[in-house]
Design a protein that fits this description.
The protein is built from six helices and eight strands. The protein has 193 residues and is of the alpha/beta class. Helices cover 36% and strands 25% of the residues. The protein has one domain: Formyl transferase, N-terminal domain (Rossmann fold, 3-Layer(aba) Sandwich). It binds 5-O-phosphono-beta-D-ribofuranosylamine. 5-O-phosphono-beta-D-ribofuranosylamine binds next to α1, β6 and α6.
Length: 193
Amino acid sequence: MVIKKIAVLFSGTGSNMEKIVKEVHKKTFNGTTLEIAVLICNNPNAKGIEKAKKYGLETTIIDHTRFESREDFDLVLVDTIKQSGAELTVLAGFMRILTPYFTKNIKAINLHPSLLPLFKGAHAIEESFASDMKVGGVTVHYVNEELDGGNIIAQKAFEKTDNMTLESFEETIHSIEHTLLPQTIIKILTQKE
Ligand code: GRF
């Protein structure tokens, strides 16, 4: 049996991390079993840490405020991921800008709540809601040295209807994220050529 390991990084609520735990962790697809090798969080107060415990999973906390520079933080982050044996790292609501040291050493994918390359950065949901576009969406992309800039792997759009509020727009985004990210992980690691 083939086992492939992933690292999952989060910073806050951890709803996407929870979906990965439920839909991907210790599940077998096409003869390949996927396993979370390590869960990492940069925020000791993140709600996701308790969520993970419900599934018997401990989170490794690497508190970014304890490091002098982004590079120092990334050094420990990369080391922790390498030691876990993960071949793919998933940024599931991980709210840190990563340095080239990370992007050169780690194969990672990121979840972003807009149709990239539009609305990069931390205010994607508000900006895409406020824009005159008639669709919103979600992107999963490879991580490179440019913020929200790597190759796009998967995207899903939805119609922005006139009666949508920012809240319902955001809810639609999260519900799409919760299926698109697990599906993409499974596809990358288990799809037969
Ligand atoms: C998601 O909307 C993701 O796109 C963004 O941060 C949010 C994380 O939510 N990068 P959660 O912590 O997974 O609930």
